[in-house]
Design a protein that fits this description.
With about 375 residues, the chain is α/β, with parallel strands linked by helices. It is built from 13 helices and twelve strands. A seven-stranded mixed beta sheet has the order 2-8-7-6-5-3-4, with helices on both faces. Strands 9-12-11 form a three-stranded antiparallel beta sheet. The protein binds pyridoxal-5'-phosphate. Pyridoxal-5'-phosphate binds next to helix 4.
Length: about 375
């Protein structure tokens, strides 16, 4: 017991202690990019489903009694929507990534992964059997060098990237990565967690226009879609392999059917005129912020402050001024790059954002001085 107390104290000394807080103030933190999580249409869908007697829990693993028509309907829809043969719904995006990387990649395989890839992918690779090779963030030459180096030793070679990076807010060069994957007969796995619903012609993500051959995408449902879960979209053989061998899928209770009903409804919203308008509103907020702060123009804007304790100090001052923005510290981001992660959403009004920048600027000027 003494050990835990001591290591918590060390975290406090290093400015890395974290605790749970309830949300307060203007939302500049959540991943609810389109404002769906309290949308009346989703509430109505929940009430309708409950009134029609939907089971509240699934009752078991999908392979036993836990499979429900709501899961199957969501999977059939999302396979078609994202343009794949099949899709599989997991209770969270983390579980989906973990299942994918621990199951599909064998000890004869190599996976090249971006240095800024999400923890769920890193953990899956770490726990799996394939050789993992970290590649410099978004560096196409480094990807090509690694493909040349490892192609012959690997039975299958995979490239794992995010389409929109969760902490840096920049986009992967997906077309170029896809071309490289084709050239070296590799399989590209794209985590669309932060792009689903927001980017692509119709909110299908940044990989929307890529051919589906040798491509797999992961779409989380707890961010712009406002609910929870993760959809793996791939060929029928890959989905059947996951159903037959993915331990996080087999040995875990299926998502509540209501969760699947609500995700399906969220997709209806994404496809609706309102969904399109919300996407456009968010894009225009992104463009305005880009003109002030620079960056990639996505809804995730990193404000790098360096020292952990400084990031915590600035976050806390902004929270006191009424803005819900949090400090992001290592190991979530690399050492020395503690930051605020400004997360934009379609409901933000201009005045609130202007006020936020008025409050933020003195800290940035201090830094520049
Ligand atoms: C890039 C990325 N992938 C996967 C996940 C995991 O998704 P979920 O929150 O649904 O578990 C996240 C969540 O933070 C993420 O940012």
């Amino acid at each position: 017991m003494h050990y835990f107390k001591k290591s918590l104290e060390q975290l406090k000394e290093r400015g890395r202690y974290r605790s749970l807080t309830l949300s307060e103030g203007i939302d500049l933190t959540s991943n609810d990019y389109l404002g769906f999580r309290d949308h009346p249409k989703l509430r109505e869908a929940a009430l309708r489903a409950i009134e029609s007697g939907i089971d509240l829990g699934s009752g078991g693993s999908r392979l036993l009694r836990g499979n429900h028509s709501a899961h199957e309907e969501l999977e059939a829809f999302s396979a078609e929507f994202f343009g794949y043969e099949r899709s599989l719904y997991f209770v969270t995006g983390f579980q989906a990534n973990y299942a994918l990387f621990t199951t599909l990649l064998t000890r004869h395989d190599v996976v090249l992964y971006d240095s800024l890839i999400h923890a769920s992918v890193k953990d899956g690779i770490h726990a799996g059997h394939a050789k993992g090779v970290k590649v410099e963030h978004n560096d196409l030459n480094a990807y090509e060098d690694a493909l040349k180096r490892f192609r012959d030793e690997a039975q299958q070679i995979f490239i794992a990237v995010e389409s929109l990076y969760s902490m840096d807010g920049d986009f992967a060069p997906l077309q170029e990565l896809y071309d490289l994957a084709q050239k070296y007969d590799a399989i590209l796995i794209v985590d669309e967690a932060h792009a689903t619903g927001v980017w692509g012609e119709s909110g299908k993500g940044c990989a929307e226009s890529l051919p589906r051959e040798n491509l797999m995408t992961l779409h989380t449902c707890g961010k712009a879609l406002g609910i929870a879960g993760g959809l793996v979209c791939a060929s029928g053989n890959i989905i059947d392999t996951l159903i037959n061998t993915a331990r996080p899928f087999i040995y875990s209770t299926a998502p509540p059917p209501l969760q699947a009903v609500l995700v399906r409804e969220a997709f209806r919203l994404v496809q609706s005129e309102e969904g399109k308008e919300r996407r456009q509103r968010l894009h225009s907020i992104c463009n305005n912020v880009k003109s002030q702060m620079g960056g990639a123009g996505s809804q995730i804007v990193p404000i790098i402050l360096g020292e952990d304790s400084h990031a915590v100090f600035v976050a806390s001052a902004l929270q006191k001024a009424g803005f819900d923005i949090r400090a992001i510290r290592p190991p979530t981001v690399p050492e020395g790059s503690a930051r605020l992660r400004l997360s934009l959403n379609a409901d933000l009004d201009k005045e609130a954002l202007d006020q936020f920048f008025v409050h933020l600027m003195p800290y940035l000027q201090d830094q520049a001085a």
